[in-house]
Amino acid sequence: LAKTTQPISMDSYEGQEVNITCSHNNIATNDYITWYQQFPSQGPRFIIQGYKTKVTNEVASLFIPADRKSSTLSLPRVSLSDTAVYYCLVGERRDDKIIFGKGTRLHILP
Amino acid sequence: ETGVTQTPRHLVMGMTNKKSLKCEQHLGHNAMYWYKQSAKKPLELMFVYSLEERVENNSVPSRFSPECPNSSHLFLHLHTLQPEDSALYLCASSQEAIGTGTYEQYFGPGTRLTVT
């Protein structure tokens, strides 16, 4: 699993667009990028996954530049219920540990 | 509803008790995981079973004993726990395909364990 780096925390306001960037400089050629969301006292939930360029679903968009060394999760018009921890993972489980890391703690303010 | 169920949802046990956590996945996946999450800490991987064989044990104390009787069921047997073992225990499953560069984990709702 490629090492990732994310901001520890972010604050935003209701109705704003939020972008969370993840760095993954040692991403392997066939690795995908996956984002999870976790609410307190619940398990992480899959949000979106992509390989290159842009992926969009009903929840979020994922932007991946050509060099794939970073990715940006975009949440359009956030609400208070988007307050959660967001994790970026890269690749598949290999011999090293599955590491969710500390993620990004997003706090949405009214 | 993720297709992964866990029971019980809440458990209070004394340090001398023996209890078991159960996880069941209805997704046809070939890998299952136990995670521990203490208050405001990152998820800690405890055990991984792939194709019903344990493939990873991250130096978890022997008072935690996993069991995977088939690809749909996973247990975590607990005995002589310590108060610091109080945490949220999460089960997850995934479909592993080596070389695809991806996998998605589906998590259960967790068991909130309190050791008194």
**How much helicity do the residues of chain A have?**
under 10%
Order of helices and strands of chain A: EEEEEEEEE
What would you report as the Rg of chain B, rounded to the nearest angstrom? 14 Å
**Uncertain segments of chain B:** none
Instruction: Quickly give the structural class of chain A.
Output: mainly beta
Question: What is the N-to-C order of secondary-structure elements of chain B (H for helix, E for strand)?
Answer: EEEEEEEEEEE
**Average pLDDT number of chain B:** 91
How big is the Rg of chain A? 13 Å
State the major sheet of chain A: 5 strands, mixed
* Model regions low in confidence, pLDDT < 50 over at least 5 residues of chain A: none
Strand fraction of chain A equals over 45%
- Quick one: overall form of chain A? globular
Put simply, the count of helices of chain A is: 0
- Secondary-structure-based class of chain B equals mainly beta
Question: Care to describe what's here?
Answer:
The complex is a heterodimer of chains A (110) and B (116). Chain A has 110 residues and is an all-beta fold. Chain A is built from no helices and nine strands. Chain A has strands at residues 9-13, 18-23, 33-38, 45-50, 53-56, 61-64, 70-75, 84-90, 104-109. In chain A, the strands form two sheets. Chain A has a five-stranded mixed β-sheet with strand order 1-9-8-3-4, with no helix packed on it. A four-stranded antiparallel β-sheet of chain A has the order 2-7-6-5, with no helix packed on it. In chain A, strand 3 and strand 4 form a beta hairpin. The N and C termini of chain A lie far apart (37 Å). The model of chain A has no long low-confidence stretch (mean pLDDT 91). Chain B contains no helices and eleven strands. In chain B, a hairpin with a 2-residue loop joins strand 5 (44-50) and strand 6 (53-57). The mean pLDDT of chain B is 91. Chains A and B meet through strand 4 of A and strand 9 and strand 10 of B.
